[in-house]
Amino acid sequence: MRIAMVGTRGVPARYGGFETCVEEVGRRLADAGHEVIVYCRADERGPDTYLGMSLVWLPALHHRVAETLSHTALSVAHGISKARPDAAIVFNAANSPLIPPLSMSRIPVATHVDGLEWKRAKWGPVGQRYYRMAESLAVRWSDALIADAIGIQDYYQDEFGVATHLITYGAPHVERADHPGLTELDLTSRGYHLVVARMEPENHVSLIVDGYVRSNATAPLVLVGSAPYADEYISSIRALADERVRFLGGVWDQELLDQLYANSLIYWHGHSVGGTNPSLLRAIGAGAAVNAFDVSFNREVLGAAGRYFSQPDDIAALVTDAETDLSATLARGESSRERAERYDWDDVAAKYEHLCARLANGDLRKRGSRGYRRPRPRTVEATPLLDSRLTQETHR
User: Fold this and answer.
1) Residue range 222-249: average pLDDT?
2) Residue 185 gets which letter from DSSP?
3) Burial level of 384, CB count in 10 A (0-12/13-18/19+)?
4) Which residues make Cβ contacts (< 8 Å) with residue 363, sequence separation at least 6?
5) I need a surface site. Which of 26, 132, 149, 231 has the fewest CB within 10 A?
6) What pLDDT, in 10s, does the model give residues 342-371?
7) What is the model's pTM?
8) CA dihedral over 197, 198, 201, 205, signed as positive or negative
9) Contacts made by residues 328-332, CB under 8 angstroms, sequence distance 24+
């Protein structure tokens, strides 16, 4: 098959979950003999091929709102006029307004809907309304929907009454080892706390820093990551931090990043809206003990191997626990590695291959849904005459 992957920043993967998925799945599909076309943003043009994938470099408007859509529009135009794939995987429900041209050109489309993007604070009211509309259009126009977490699958079933294909991400297996970069950073094995995240409010980096600063921690807190258009939020994090908090910015050396995970005392995961997160999977694949923000997506991955927080005081207590009971912390790391065995990139790629084959063969057609959300249940005020169960009824 000829398979197009549309809507991401492209590969090599240096940014987020979508790019990691494209790289890991695309390379395996190419190894299996398929022609994989990946559309990449041409900030700096890279190679024409990478790990067996063909790369198409196209520009994008450098604007928070227009960047994704402008690049995807050019990618769709190229796909229709030149590439003519047998199946297209469109990443991010925000790109759903650009699905109809592909459909009219008889190119079947599966949309990876990502997480609950409309909950991201960076978009504001207008952007959040757009994302909710885009979810509806993805339901209406896609031949198939891909969810990377059970929580996202449940959301689309509850909101729209539609089924999705559950395809998670994979967890790489990383063995703990010495790395000269750790020495250069003055870090010792099991001697630091770690956060790896885009610096955005829904990833709760400020919450983690706030809670950590309230603790009596002796091990430093190391922050890895950045984000475009996030200077104000990053400044607010710096204002909360004390001398124990270290800001590394982006770390693009993958071997060093892997060893930062593997040698950490605790990996702190604050992501809350994005479904199954590759950074969390990389952490458990490296055998890191994980404390995570308390949402269903994180509990789905970690189960009993994780510890959970929602307030700064929770974090302060968990910091103390980690530093005073080292043996229990290390044991949780081993439990993390066992959880990681559930997430295998070979299995993930096989599911994408099967889905693309069904798309190319015409087995999947538009679901017929008009993309309408289901009505919300009515809130009933409690009175002494009502059954006590009704007092628990709330808006979902």
Assistant:
1) 92
2) T
3) exposed
4) none
5) 231
6) 999 999 999 999 999 999 999 987 655 677
7) 0.86
8) positive
9) 329/265, 329/266, 329/289, 330/190, 330/289, 332/289, 332/290, 332/305, 332/306, 332/307
